[in-house]
Amino acid sequence: MLAYTLRRIAQLVPVLLVLTVAVFGFVEALPGSVLDTLIGTEGGDDAETREILAKEYGLDRPVHERYAKWLVRTVQFDFGNSLVTRRPISLELMSRIPATVYLATVGIMLSMMIAIPLGTLAAVRRNSAVDYTAQVTSLAGISIPEFWFAILCVLLFSLYLGWLPSSGYVSPFEDFWGSLQFLILPAAAIGFRQAAFTTRLTRSSMLDELSKEYVDTARALGHSERKVIFKYTLRNAMIPTITISGLQLANLLGGTVVLESIFAWPGIGRAIFEAILQRDYPLIQAGVLVLGCIVVVMNLLVDLTYRLLNPRVKFA
Amino acid sequence: MTGDAHNKGSDSTRRSFLKASTALAGTALAGVPGLADAQSPPKKHPKRGGTLRFGTREDTIGLDTHRNIIYFVSTPLTGITGGLVDFDDKMQPKPAVAESWEPSKDLQTWTFKLRRGAEYHNGQTIDAESVKWNIERIKDPKIGHAFTRSVLADVERVTVDDKHTVQFHLKEPHAALDINLIYYPVNLMSPGAVDTADTHPVNCGPFKFKTWRRLDVTELVRFENFWETDSEGSNLPYLDGLVGRPKKEDRVRLTALRTNEVDLIDNVAYADAPAFKKDHGRTFDTWPVPQVGTAMMYFNLKNGLLSEKDNPDAHLLRQALAHAIDHEGIHQAVFNGIGEISKGFYSSASPWHVKDIEGWPKFDPDKAKALRKKAKGGDERLTIIANDTFPYMQQSGEIVHAMLKDAGFNVVLEILPGPVMLEKQNKGDYNIDSTANSYRLDPDGWYGRNILSTAPETRRRNGYKNEKADQIILAARKEGDRAKRRQMYADVETLVNRDLPMLYTHFVPLMMASNKARVKGYNVSFSGPWSYTGAGMRRTWIEG
């Protein structure tokens, strides 16, 4: 397993290298320049000022030279400074990533806490009221746009009932219980939607597993139904659920821009979005690279989890 | 803040919930025309203390107040800035760091006497040398933001007479240098703290910097040695501190105010403003700011179909466009009936407003169609661009697009992010730009920078040139008599409305709202919360 893990980590290098080239190329290809942002309007857009600023920010150098310079610094964990805020990018990222990881992780945990019992129950009691309820609820979760559900939650729980704050963020490291109050609504908005997908997946995986011969064998051997379901069937059925939840988590790390706006949540998605709008090249590159690393590591962790669920899984 | 979040809004009812749900589902709220002024000046005695939580649409993009535009309405960081001159609620210049000032007879040298004892936040004295250093730093193209530099374009050099006297020597006579120096945007920072300008700025405004996390929070604390005092000699500001909470979405901010998570917000959406005032006026004060800017359709005169360089019938085509645009439609659909339709740059609330301006061509779809058919290029494709940052620019672009389609124009609309907009403007890759410009304290800030043909922005943006307008603008710059200047600029507006390098559409109003029970003493005028002697954030206190 150690050799497998090390091999997978080594495989990250070319993946990340390709990612950096792709991101650099993508950012270069965007219309509009950070120089336009820096120069602004009303009096600065003469060739001389443009030249001075391009030199000041190293934008007068050819693309490949800038890329090489950036790569050399990045492998030393030096992302440089934001062109817009002029503050260290590591500082910008480190103030954002914990908020995003916190939200995405709790959101996915919530989703699994809903989806696994509900999906399992729906499969075990197929065509019962529980099954129909689970199917309708998950269909509603898939159909309702996440932002709309979030807004309804805000209206109900913040504005009408006054139970929870409508927006904002408190770091769990500063005030854990306080942070939970701000976390509940955005995490619920994420969790409900993701649970809708995962419930359906868990149900169909469970139905698949329940139809296999080993389940009949276990029952014939006289194992209790509880043992058959929880010890044998669910563990096998969890593999696709874990895979999807891992991908959902990875997706959420950079993909909660809309929810971050609704809940004024200072996450990495919004920071990268703003950086793209302002053509803050180094921040976009660093942000996407860090997210890429997280996604790749998440995939690795998901793969390693298979082994925990089913010891017969062999790592090639 | 956490505890406050549990406080149920006192006016939360099932009806309000349903009403809000309905609004979110896209149903238009019932409009109530006009906005009454907020409460009359406070009768209660000011209290020192309290922290005001301010929900804003924008946040600063960086901390160095010379490098970045510190937008005066919406940016909490503005609280740290201060400068030589302030203004009052009538938009007249008032002493700030400079106690007095005087221009030479030829208006080419301005002498400022500095206030003794005025300090930067780190205790460094604000002396003439430091003022000189600030002006030179702002004028450095590697550092100063272009907008800020542009207001100092006429300053040739700054000299120090003595520790408390500084002189500005201008390239050309200028009657309004003092207005240009008002602390937005020409603000002063401590030369001794320049190394921390991007991480911990040290300026001289009413509040000191504490922390900033972009798009999350700005924390400021009272500057105890701020120069301003109230009528009883107590130091201003009254507030212990200020916490800025940027919340970009208008309804997210409004909800945060209603759930008592913030005390004051800016930019209540035009669609929500009348209903909010009607339904929640007992709990919340509303503060209408009549004009933070002026919206318009810029026509590209540098090149393309609307430029005389490429199309001999360009003026005819611009007239056709003007006749096709229904200002009342924009007033109702975009601004929800709030504010005023504009015929010039200054609204009726401004001291620079002039009534008798010859307006733009009236809305007349039939005439628009006839002129379009008559003009060369009337069937060719026109491109409207609009900035995606400001909803009213997009919405104005959308409604103008629809109006022009109705008049038979072949027109497309592109809603674009800022850098792409700038690139298209620089290259002249557009025909019509749905845009706006911020309020200028002195008219030269508008006409001298956006209408004068030699001004860099005019050259960059639309290439308008009218020799008569140029002569008037340059003469007005040297005119000391305010009434005469006002009339001169009115004459320019008439020329603009005839030539149509742009079509003024509407003044950009803004409504702020605050928690009536907590926020006391607050008042605003044109520039939002920051820029006043005797008003705004400096005179605000928190009750309870």
Write the layout of secondary structure elements.
The complex is a heterodimer of chains A (316) and B (544).
Chain A: H1 2-29, H2 34-39, H3 47-56, H4 63-75, H5 89-124, H6 129-143, H7 146-160, H8 176-210, H9 213-220, H10 225-254, H11 257-262, H12 268-278, H13 281-309
Helix pairs in contact in A: 1-13, 5-6, 5-8, 5-10, 5-13, 6-8, 7-8, 8-10, 10-13, 12-13
Chain B: H1 14-24, E1 51-56, E2 85-87, E3 93-95, E4 98-103, E5 109-114, H2 128-139, H3 146-151, E6 155-162, E7 165-170, H4 177-180, E8 207-213, E9 217-222, E10 241-246, H5 250-258, E11 264-265, H6 273-280, E12 284-299, H7 314-324, H8 327-333, H9 365-374, E13 381-387, H10 391-406, E14 410-416, H11 418-427, E15 432-438, H12 444-451, H13 456-461, H14 467-478, H15 482-499, E16 502-515, E17 519-520, E18 541-542
Parallel strand pairs in B: 1-10, 1-11, 13-14, 13-15
Antiparallel strand pairs in B: 2-3, 4-5, 5-7, 6-7, 8-9, 9-10, 11-16, 12-15, 12-16, 17-18
Helix pairs in contact in B: 7-9, 12-14, 14-15
Description:
The complex is a heterodimer of chains A (316) and B (544). With 316 residues, chain A is mainly α. Chain A has helices at 2-29, 34-39, 47-56, 63-75, 89-124, 129-143, 146-160, 176-210, 213-220, 225-254, 257-262, 268-278, 281-309. Chain A is globular and about 85 Å long. Chain B has 15 helices and 18 strands. In chain B, the strands form four sheets. Chain B has a ten-stranded mixed sheet with strand order 8-9-10-1-11-16-12-15-13-14, with helices on both faces. A four-stranded antiparallel sheet of chain B has the order 4-5-7-6, covered by helices on one side. A two-stranded antiparallel sheet of chain B has the order 2-3. In chain B, a hairpin with a 3-residue loop joins β8 and β9 (217-222). At the A-B interface, α2, α3, α7, α8 and α12 of A face α1, α3, α5, α11 and α13 of B.
